[in-house]
Structures are given as structure tokens and as C-alpha cells.
Amino acid sequence: MITLALSKGRIFEETMPLLAAAGIEVTEDPEKSRKLILETTRPDVRVVLVRASDVPTYVQYGGADLGVTGLDVLLENGNQGMYQPLDLRIAACRLSVAVRADYDYASAVRQGSRLRVATKYVGLSREFFASKGVHVDLIKLYGSMELAPLTGLADAIVDLVSTGNTLKANHLVEVERIMDISARLVVNQAALKLKREPIRRIIDAFASAIPPAKSPAP
Ligand code: ATP
Ligand code: PRP
Predict the structure, then answer these.
(1) Residue (of 114, 113, 116, 70) closest to 95 by Cα position
(2) pTM above 0.70, yes or no
(3) Centroid of ligand 1 to alpha carbon of 187 (angstroms)
């Protein structure tokens, strides 16, 4: 049996075409079912549904043989003990700093002010601001980061941006682009040895179906 860990929503949806390229279809809709283990058209392949941030943990400890997870999750929560053969180029977005449209970020940085930054990505943010020599107090949030500058909780946020619609709807502007993010295939190292052939076939099929690279946004 091959077990693939996915999270519901965009990772699940955007992984489906890759699975189809491997001749695998999930036979149940996760949005309509409460099941956490989904069968596929291949009796030897199943999908387990976990929280996005739990995918690496499942793969690392062998609860799943393979998983699809964002680079943000891998860098923030650890990526050790896993083979990472493919950038799948799905769930593409960027990790950015954003502030209220009326906040002068450039001069706050220039003056050496201490910034209050709210984010789910405390580790990545600490690293980024340290590399710029900017002093920050980091406030850990688990979601709805956009609210923090609007309520006075923080001067800035570090969050994922894709279309920019969420920032725009909340009168925030992107002031720094920290890194580009996309989803990665991760593989348990022991599983790769023990189930080499079937896992290799899935990796090769995924590789053949990766969407073409987009030219970077200006
Ligand atoms: P959790 O449920 O563990 O809190 P989450 O809500 O962040 O996780 P998703 O929103 O499904 O889970 O995001 C999964 C992954 O998709 C993220 O880790 C990131 O790599 C990517 N992602 C997040 N937001 C976007 C977006 N707006 N556009 C494209 N990709 C995104
Ligand atoms: C992500 C991210 C932003 C939004 C950005 O949230 O945290 O809020 O997407 O996308 P945009 O630039 O295209 O508007 P998501 O939709 O995953 O909601 P969640 O974090 O609450 O799951």
C-alpha cells in the first residue's frame, strides 16, 4: 500500500491532475465526506487528509509514504529526514511583508524603529528581519493576519500573497517580497527504499505533469 498525505483545499485540488498523470483518481470528494482516508482507483494507493502543517510530520515518521506540502511549511516547521524530489509548481504564492497603506514602512526601517510584526511564520520572519538588521517584536498568529495592522495589534504582517486580493480588500500593501513559495513532493526515506518501484513511478508521473514555470511577477 502507498499512502499519500494531502491537505484539503488547494493542495488537494491542485494535486489531482498530477495524480491523474499517474493513472490515479481519488474516488471520493473530501468536501462532501467526513472520511480521512480516501480510496483511489488504484487498490494499492490511498490518500490521507491531514492539516497542511502536519503533512511533513506524517511523511517524516512514516504515517504516509509521500506528501504534498508548501515550501513555507517545510521551511517554517522543518524538513529533515525527507526526500524532496520535486518542486510541483502548484499552490504558487509568495511570502511577503505587508503594512497599512498609510504606514511608512521605508522610513520606519530607515530610522531603525522597532517593528511589531504579526505572523504565522515566526521562524522565517525572524531570519528575514535579522538579515536586514531590522529589530522586530514578533507576534504569533494562526490565521487572519491581515487583521493585525487594522486593529493596532501590529505595524506589519508576514503572510502569503497570491493574487493580492486579500491585501487589497483590507487596505494593506505589500512592501517586501521575502520568497517565492510553491508546493513540494516529499517522500519518506525508508519508504523510498522499501517500495522503490511504485514510488518511483509516481514521482516520474508527477514530474511529467508539473505545470510550466510562470514568468515572475514584476
Ligand atoms: P492549516 O490548515 O494547517 O492552517 P492552511 O490554512 O495554511 O493550513 P491552505 O490555506 O490550504 O492551508 O494552504 C496550503 C498551502 O498552500 C500553504 O502552505 C501555501 O504553500 C499554499 N498557499 C496558501 N495560500 C495560498 C494562496 N492564496 N495561493 C496559492 N497558494 C497558497
Ligand atoms: C491565504 C493567505 C492570504 C491569502 C492570500 O489565505 O493567508 O490570506 O491566501 O491570497 P490572495 O493574495 O490571492 O488574496 P487562505 O485563502 O489560504 O486562507 P486561510 O489561511 O484562512 O486558509
Answers:
(1) 70
(2) yes
(3) 20
pLDDT of 216: 63
Q: What is the pLDDT of residues 104-135, one digit of tens each?
A: 999 999 999 999 999 999 999 999 999 999 99
pLDDT higher than 80, residue 157? yes
Domains and CATH numbers, the chain: 2-91+182-209 (3.40.190.10), 93-180 (3.40.190.10)
Ligand 1 centre distance from Cα of residue 46 (Å) = 22
Work out the number of other CB atoms within 10 angstroms of the CB of residue 16.
Answer: 15
125-136 core/surface letters (b: 16 or more CB in 10 A; e: else): beebbeeeebeb
Ligand 1 pocket, Cβ-based, cut-off 6 angstroms: 7, 9-11, 51-53, 70, 72-73, 91-93, 160, 162, 181, 183
Q: Which three cell numbers stand for residue 171?
A: 487596505
